[in-house]
Amino acid sequence: MAAGFSVKDALNKNSKAGIDESPRARFRTKDISIFKMYRNDMNFYSVEQVEELAGDILMYGLKQNLELVYAPCEKGEYRIVAGERRWEALKYLVSKGYKEFELATSKLTTPQDNDEEQVEIIIANAYRTKTTSDMIEEETRLKASLERMKAAAAQHGLQFVNGVEISADYGEVSIHVVGLDFDPEDEMLQALLGRIRANRFERAVQMAEKLERLGMKGVWEGVLEIVTNPRLIGRPHFAAWLAQNGYVEDYNASFSKYLSRGKPGYVERAKTSIHEATSAILKAKGIPVLAHPGRYKLNEWEFDSMFKEFTEAGGHAIEVTTGSHTPGQNLLFCDFAQSRNLWASTGSDFHRSMNRCEPGLQGDLPRTVEPVWNHFRAS
User: Fold this and answer.
1) pLDDT per residue as tens digits for the range 217-247
2) Which domains can be identified in the chain, with CATH numbers?
């Protein structure tokens, strides 16, 4: 290790010391009549298998809130951002006499511009069955929205930066490598991401099948109703479903009983090496960043070995301040970045509500480190 720094106290301190873990609501929820809602004109997807979904809701309840924006017009009061198929299923149930489904607990979100809302709709429909026309329209709208966002950022003097987070592997430990400022059209990177997404999806299917064989019903459909971004479906969504449906006493028990290695619902994840992830980002002219280094359950020797693999592949940046670190870890990895002459990055590591850190509140980078954004291509 470099003089003046030890990761001994920094590693494995994804303990809760110094972190407020109490739940915090990021969105306001409200029970709203389904007859006050209306279809989003930007949702170009067809709505299918409504009666089948209605049957699941009747049996198991509504597992995921609808997402709405308050936007009163002649069509109604609330525009649907996510959950149109659920809305149709609820209307079907009410038409069959199940009046208790007229009120739906819904998540009210802050109105966004059209491009942001269009992206939200596309993400919400990521894993639905699509026609060829749907897929062509999806790609066309997504690219157009992102280009307009980039232009809008430029008008306000902001830099629009592409980003990705790749789960790589060091032994049995998942290591996250962030890519910044890369070419999104790079074939090598897109091939890697496509393979990872396909493997993630197949793993999720296999987990659902294993849980179904244990006698659980409606696992796959239920998990898809929970996941916010189906492209990122994984064990946390299964854990939430298991807890919501009473198979375990709480979220954490889902892992200890069903979803950890050796448990009946666990499926091994396809491996991606640190070298492969780092090299793909560099090939796409991006900057690879080792994310939240204090989270990994590695001893000091293992951390050095893992970090050597990252740097030998061309990695030269590390997250210093992040929502996954304690304040003490932020300081320790600031010293680490200085001692290794690394570029420093920052991030809230926000993935879901009730996160440890709200977006943008992870703290500023110390002035003693070199910010990674000084090396973006457009800088």
Assistant:
1) 889 888 877 776 666 788 989 999 999 999 9
2) 1-22+161-214+265-379 (3.20.20.140), 28-108+112-147 (3.90.1530.10)
